[in-house]
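User: Predict the complex.
Assistant: Input components as received:
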Amino acid sequence: MLTTNQSSYDLFCFILQRSKKEKCTFHFHNTTVNIFVAKSKKTLAKPGVKNIVLVDGVRTPFLQSGTIYADLMPHDLARAALQGLLNRTGLPKDAVDYIVYGTVIQEVKTSNVAREAALGAGFSDKTPAHTVTMACISSNQAMTTAVGLIAAGQCDAVVAGGVEFMSDVPIRHSRRMRKTMLSLNKAKTLGARLSLLGSIRLAHLAPELPAVAEFSTAETMGHSADRLAAAFGVSRLEQDEFALRSHTLAKKAQDSGLLSDVISFKVPGKDIVSKDNGIRPSTMEQMAKLKPAFIKPHGTVTAANSSFLTDGASAVLIMSEEKALAMGYKPKAYLRDFVYVSQDPKDQLLLGPTYATPKVLEKSGLTLNDIDVFEFHEAFAGQIMANLKAMESDWFAQTYMGRKTKVGAPPMEKFNSWGGSLSLGHPFAATGCRLVTTVAHRLQKEGGQYGLVAACAAGGQGHAMVIEAYPQ
Amino acid sequence: IYEVKDNVAVVRINDPTSKVNTLSRHMQAEMVEVMNEIWGNAAVKSAVLISRKPGCFIAGADIKYHTHTHSLTSLSQEGQKIFDQVEKSPIPIVAAINGSCLGGGLEFAIACQYRIATKSKKTILGTPEVMLGLLPGAGGTQRLPKMVGLPAAFDMMLTGRNIRPDKAKKMGLVHQLVDPLGPGLKSPEERTIEYLEEVAVDFAKGLAGKKVTMEKKKGLVQKIQDFVMGLPPVRKQIYKTVHSKVMKQSKGLYPAPLKIIECVQTGIEKGNAAGYLTESQNFGKLAMTSESRALIGLYHGQVTCKKNHFGKPERDVKKLAVLGAGLMGAGIAQVTIDKGVATILKDTTEEGLARGHQQVYKGLNDKTKKKSLTTFERDGIMSLLSGQLDYRDFENADMVIEAVFEDLSIKHKVVKEVEAVIPPHCIFATNTSALPIKDIAAASKRPEKVIGMHYFSPVDKMQLLEIITTNKTSKDTTASAVAVGLKQGKVIIVVGDGPGFYTTRCLAPMLAEAVRALQEGVGPKKLDSLTTGFGFPVGAATLADEVGIDVAAHVAEDLGKAFGTRFGGGNVEVLKMMVQKGFKGRKSGKGCYVYGAKSKEKKVNSGAEDILKSFKLTAPPAVSADEDIQYRLVSRFVNEAVLCLQEGILPDPVQGDIGAVFGLGFPPCLGGPFRFVDSHGADKLVQKMKRFEEAYGNQFTPCQLLLDHAKDSSKRFHK
C-alpha cells in the first residue's frame, strides 16, 4: 500500500505498473480513497442487448426447520417474502407482468406454489405465475427465467424467488398401500372392497420418507460430500475451520446490520421474527467432538460443518433498466451472463462451481481477478474446500474439464464475507436469490464492480452468474 | 519396502514383474524379512499391509514350479508357518484390501488382526482353490470356520464364490468398509488407494492405543448360531449334510471338496495341530491329482482364449447390428449393449421384436435384482439398444451379426439385403451352428468380410464363442470378430470351416449314440444318470431337450449327409417323428421329458417313449454294460474332436478342450477331450473303441491321430 505524501505522478506510475487490475486503497492525509484500477472490461453492457437490473431483493429470516415456522405451509412463507418485496419496493401490484418461483420438496396441495403465494400476497389475479425446480439452484433458475422473459421482450417486470419448507415434508404411504387404496376407489361391490382391505399387510403400512439422496445413485448428499472431501484430501480440521469462519462472519454481519435483505415477519400465532436463528459460532474444540454424520466411523463431514435443514423464502424484483428508471427506481445491480453446467452425479455431484465459474467468466470476457465479490453456496464445508482445491488444480482442469489451465481459487477476503449457507441456513430453493441480493449489497457496501455467484445442486448440476454493480 | 508413519509401519506390496501380486516363493521370503524387521523395530506399534496395485491386493499363490506332493506339502507348511506368525503378531496388523483378495491373499488377510476393504467393484474376496481342484492350503481351512462360522466357511470354500465387500462385512470377513473415491487431485484409483491407506493407518493407531476393538459386535442371530455350533451333534450333522450334498453334486468325481470338509472337521474336532497337518498333506495330494491338473489346464486355457491372437483390428466396432430378435439374437444384443456398444436389433415382425426386447430387458433387470447393476445403469444400457423392423441406420454399422432361421436360402437372402445397405468396411458375421460358412458366403460380394460367430444358448450365461473362418476370411475380419467377442466377455476359440465346425461336429455323434441307446431301451433318466455320472453337467437326454429336438434333428440330418454312416447310430427318424408330434424339447413343453408345472420330479414323456418303442433296437450285450454305454458316448465325442485336430479344423488341443468344456459341457474334471486322452491313455481308449467297432461298425473307427497316440505313449496333446 502506498502511504501519505506521494506525488500524483508517482501514483500514476504505480497504477501503470500494476499488472493486476484490482482495487487499490490509498491513504491520503487520513482519508481513504478507493481507486478502481481498470478492469478487463469497463462494463458488460452489450450494444443491442437489453440491460436487465435487480431492483431489490428480500428474504424471510432463515430458521432451522421445526422451529417458529413449524405450523405454516410453504405458500405462507412464500407469501411473506412476496409481501415483503412489495413493501420494500412500493411496487404497484399490477405492475408485475409475471411471477416465477422455485421450490424443491413439493407440498402436493400447492404444486404450483408460485400462484398460491401470489394470490395470497395480494398480487393482481391477472398476473400469471409458475413454479420451477432445479434442486438447490431453483431460485437461480427462477431468476434466469425472469431474465429470459425480459430479454425476449415478453415482460418488463418479473418477480422471482424461491421457498423451502422442511418443517413438513410429504410422507407417503407405501406403493403397495397406495395401489390398494386406489383400487378401493374403483371396487364396485362390498365383497371386492373387503377382499382388497383383507389384502393389506402390516408391512404395507410402513411409510415412505423423502431423503436428501440422489435418485439415480441412491447416495445421500452428505455421503457424497464426504467422499468428495476425501478425494480432494480436505481434512476434518480444514472443514471445521471453514464452518467456524462462516458462522463468525455471519454473526458479525448480523450484528452490524449488514443483512438488510431480511424482512420482519409476523408469524401467525407467534412473535415477529426478524433474524436468522441458525448462526452459532462455536469453538474448534467443540466442533472436533462431533462424530461423522454420514461415513462412519472414519468420515469427516459432521452436523457442524454441513448446512442444516432450513425453512425460508426469498424474492427479487427484476426489470428491464428502462422500465425501472421510468418507474423511478434506482436499481441495485445489473444481472449479466449466466451458465448452467452438469456433470457426473455420483463422483462430481457437488463440483458445480468449479465447472461453472471459468465458463461464465469466459462468456463475460472477465478473469477471476476482475471479480470483487464472490458468493458461493456453502452446502458443506468439505464441498466448498473441495471446489476451491479443484479450481486451484491445473491437473483437474486438464483431466476433467478439458481446459488448458486452472481458473484459480477466489481470494478468501472476497469470499462469502457475510457468512453463507452453513451459518445463515439453506432453504434449498430460496438460497439463489439470497446469493444474488447479497452480491448486490456487498458491491454497494464494499465497493467494486463485478460479483460472481456460484452454486452446486443435486443431480450433479451447477450454476454461475456475473453481477455488475449499478453506477452509484 | 516399508515406511513408518506415526509409529505405524506401512508395508506396500508390489510385485514389479507382474500385473498382479501373487504369493510367490520370492514374495514370501521378502514378507518374512520385512515382518521380522518390523517386529524388531521398537518404534513400530502397529502395521498396515496394503497393495500398490490398483485392483489387486494379492490374487493368490503361485504353484507353477512344484511337481511333487512332497514339495507342495512343504510349500503349504511354509505358508502356514508365516501366517501363524502373522496371527500371533505382537503388534496389530491391518490388512487394507482394494481389488481381488483371493486364495493365498485371503488367507494372508484373515491371519491379520484387522481387515478394511474398499467397496470398489473390483474388490472381491474368496477362496477359489476348489475350482482348481485344490484347497486353501495356508491355514484357510482352519481360520475361516472360526471367523465366519461353519456354514459360511463351507459355502465359501466349496463353491469358491467371490464375496463382495458388503457381504464380507455382513458375514464378519472384514471389519470396516471404505468407499471408493471419485476424481480429486489425482486419479480416482490412485487416490482411493491413498485414502484406504490413510484410513487404515488411523485404525492401526487406534488398535495400538486400544481405542478400537478387534471384536466384531455380534447380533443375536450370530450368538445363537455360535451357541448351536458349539454342540458336537449339530456339527456332526452339518459335516454329514455337507458331505452328502457334495457327493450329490459332484458324483464323487471331484476330490477337493471332500478333502476340504476333512480338513475343517479335523481342525475343529481334533485341534489346530492336527488340522494344519491334514491341510498341508491334503494340499500336496490334491495338487497331484489328474482332476486338479485338468482344472488348472482349463484355467490356463481360458486365459489363453481371452486374448486376441490376430492383432488389433483396423477399426473398433462402435455400432453393431443384430438380425433376428430370437433367443440368440436378443442374447447377442444383450451382451453387446452391456459393454457399452450401441446395437441395432432388427426383426421382421413386431411380436418377434417385442419378445426379443423383453428378453434383453429381463436379462438386465435380473442383474438389478441381484444388485450387480443399479436401475439407472440398466436404463442407460437399454438406451443403447435400438429395436427396429427396417434397415434404418445400417449405413453406420461396423458389424452385422445375423441370427435368423437356419436355412441356407434365407441366409442368402439376408446377405444380399444387408450388403445393399451396409458400408464397405462393415463385417458380416453369421451365427449358425452347423451350416458351412463358405456356403453362406457364396451369396456375398465380399467374402473376405464374412465370418462365422457361433454363440451358445443362453448367450448371456454361456461363456464360449466359436469363431469360424473360411479360407477367404481376411485376418482383419477375424481380429475384429475376436475383439467384439472379447468385449462381450466371451472365451473364444477360432476354428476352420466345415459342416458343424468343431463343437457341433463333436456333439452330433454323441447325440446319435444317445438316440441309439434310447432305441436300445435305455430310458431317458438312466441315460441322464450315466452321462452326469461321467461328469457331464447336463445329462444327454436333458441336453437334447435343451438344445431342441428340432435343432438336433436338423443338425443330425445335415451332418449325416456330409459325413455319411460315420455319423449314424440312432435313427434320425426318431427325432423327426418327435418333432412332428410337437416334442421339440423344453421350448415346446415336451421332449424326452414333460415340462410344465413346477413339479420337482421331471416326468418322462410317454409319447416319446412310444416313438422309441416303435424304433426299438436290440442291445448287443457285449457292449451294453453301463460303463460301455458311457464310453460309447464319450469315445465318439473324443474321436471326432481328435479328427478335427487331425483335419486342421482345430488349430490346437487347448482350444479343443476349452470349446468342449465351455460350449458343450464336457466333464471339467477330465479337462476336455484332449486332456482326457492324455490322462486316460490313448491305447486304452482305442481298445474300447475297437470292441465297439466290432458291434456297430465304422462309427467307432479310431482316427489316425488317435491311433498314432495309442501306438506311441510318449505322444501327448498337452506337455
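Chain A touches chain B through 26 residues (CB under 8 Å).
Let me know if you want any component modeled separately.
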